[in-house]
Structure formats: C-alpha cells, structure tokens
Specification:
Elements (H helix, E strand, L loop, with lengths): L1 H9 L9 H5 L9 E10 L3 H11 L3 E2 L3 E3 L4 E7 L4 E7 L5 H8 L4 E9 L2 H10 L10 E2 L5 E5 L9 E5 L1
Parallel strand pairs: 1-5, 6-9
Antiparallel strand pairs: 1-6, 2-4, 3-4, 4-5, 7-8, 8-9
Length: 165
C-alpha cells in the first residue's frame, strides 16, 4: 500500500476545460459556418512520380489527372478516407504553381481547403474583418463548386481555400 499511496500523491493533475461554454463565449456568431477539412494541396514538379508514390507505393486510391485551365493547374486527388490530398502541377506559363515551384524546386504544401456552408456570406464577413480575398467572385474549383482563396499574409502564412459545401 506504500507504493500505491505514493503513486496516488505523485500523479500529475490533469486539467480540463471546465465547460465548452467558456471556450465558445469569445467566438462571435456568424452567418456562415466553417466545415470540415476538404483537402491539403501539394505542388509537385513531376505529377506522374507523385501519382505513382501515392498509388503504387502507398496503395491509395488516386484519381485521373484533370486540367483546370481557369486556375492554371492540373489536379489529381488522393483519397485518404477522412480527407484528400490534391496534387497540383502547372498548366500554362502563368500558372501560380509554376511560380511556387520556382521557389520550391522539390514541391511542397501549397494550400489547405476548408468547406463553408455559405461562401457568399463568408466573403462578406471576411472582407469586413479585413481578410483579403484573392478574387472578386468565387471561381469554380476542382470539385465543380465555388471556391475562394484567402491571402496567406492574413492567415498566418497559409494560403486558405474556402469551398462551398
């Protein structure tokens, strides 16, 4: 019993939030809701090699390559069960991925995509909060749904894509 009493007295105290109400008190109610993580996008210098890694080496389900000229990219989606990876490769000389790859020769994380339930309401509120949106209107993204991108300097260095759920 001496060991048990020593363990009981020396065990660290686990602190928990007393209630979720105190945490959510500081979050203002919005006309729109942030949803689930839709995908993480990775710029790749060699799309075929990247597809092969995820499909042949890691055994993931990998989509066919889709060209999105309006966005200047080729996209491939890798299914992960709870989310997806989006592999991005330049399409055309003005591709934002081409300039990204000039700075990051081996590729790397390009952006994250989070779903929203009302993209127009999100845009209006984010503009009021001085978050820069990289286009005046949503564009149709790789999933055939409206998307916008938020300026990385306003999002702690992360390019954030919002997609209408």
């Amino acid at each position: 019993s001496g060991l048990l009493s020593r363990l009981q007295t020396s065990a660290p105290t686990v602190r928990t939030l007393s209630s979720s109400k105190s945490f959510s008190q500081n979050i203002p109610s919005c006309l729109w809701k942030l949803g689930r993580l839709n995908h993480v996008a990775i710029a790749v210098p060699d799309l075929e090699k990247a597809q092969s890694l995820y499909k042949d080496v890691l055994g993931a389900q990998v989509s066919e390559t889709v060209a999105l000229p309006e966005h200047g990219v080729y996209t491939v989606f890798v299914e992960l069960g709870n989310t997806k990876l989006e592999l991005l490769h330049p399409l055309g000389e003005k591709s934002p991925i081409a300039s990204f790859l000039q700075k990051n020769k081996t590729g790397g994380m390009h952006h994250i995509c989070i779903e929203v339930d009302d993209i127009k309401a999100a845009m209006a509120e984010l503009k009021k909060k001085k978050i820069r949106i990289l286009s005046e209107e949503p564009k149709i993204g790789a999933h055939g749904k409206p998307v916008i991108f938020l300026h990385p300097k306003d999002c702690h260095g992360v390019l954030v894509e919002l997609e209408q759920a």
